[in-house]
Amino acid sequence: MKKIVILGPESTGKSTLCENLASHFNTLWCPEYARKYLLNNGREYSYDDLLIIAKGQVALEEKYIALARSRQDALLFIDTDMHVMKVWCEFVFGKCHPWIEEELLKRQYHGYLLCQPDLPWVKDELREYPDQERRDQLYTLYRNMLEQERAAWATISGNYTARLAAAISFAQRR
């Protein structure tokens, strides 16, 4: 089974893209654990909450990996991973939990889709950074991390139709 992670700043269509990819390939997608955690525990979070969220994301991902394997799915799409947790920790708190950095090195994926912040920002109860400058700054942090790794990745941009077409093409090449 091949695992593809979708990354990018908030409000760049990651969850929508995961859902649409899973539908197209008739497979599963693993949602972002942070949304559930913050909706249940409140919008305000601490540095220590990010470690709890990271561990929850890994546990949720492992659950979806096992389920996808039991279904004999060829692909699994994952909405965020430890790259997101590292960027989030460093951007908000200026430091990252060692556990997150260790997981980042241990976990293996077949590719990454990095969503550009070129969609209009959509407000919801959890999103924090509506200004384009910060969205671009976060995108650059993700891009720089991926450029330093040997993993396959692609930039996803444009409207939802263009994003899905580019993501499908990338997934088919994995």
Brief account:
By secondary structure, this protein is α/β, with parallel strands linked by helices. It is built from 7 helices and 5 strands. The model has no long low-confidence stretch (mean pLDDT 94).
How would you describe what is shown here?
It is a single chain. The protein is of the alpha/beta class and 174 residues long. It has helices spanning 14-25, 33-41, 47-70, 82-93, 98-106, 132-147, 160-173; strands at 2-7, 28-30, 75-79, 111-115, 153-156. It has a five-stranded parallel sheet, with helices on both faces. 55% of the residues lie in helices and 13% in strands. Helix 1 packs across helix 7 (160-173), helix 3 runs antiparallel to helix 4 and helix 4 packs antiparallel against helix 5 (98-106). It has seven helices and five strands.
Keywords summarizing the entry:
5 strands, single chain, alpha/beta, 174 residues, 55% helix, 5-stranded parallel beta sheet
Structural class: alpha/beta
In percent terms, what proportion of residues is strand? 5-15%
Estimated radius of gyration? 15 Å
List segments where confidence is low: pLDDT < 50 over at least 5 consecutive residues. Answer: none
Largest sheet descriptor: 5 strands, parallel
Q: What is the string of SSEs from the N terminus onward?
A: EHEHHEHHEHEH
Q: Total number of helical segments? A: 7
Straight-line N-to-C gap: 10 Å
Strand order, main sheet: write it out.
2-3-1-4-5
Number of strands: 5
Helix percentage: 55-70%
Overall geometry comes to globular
Mean pLDDT: 94
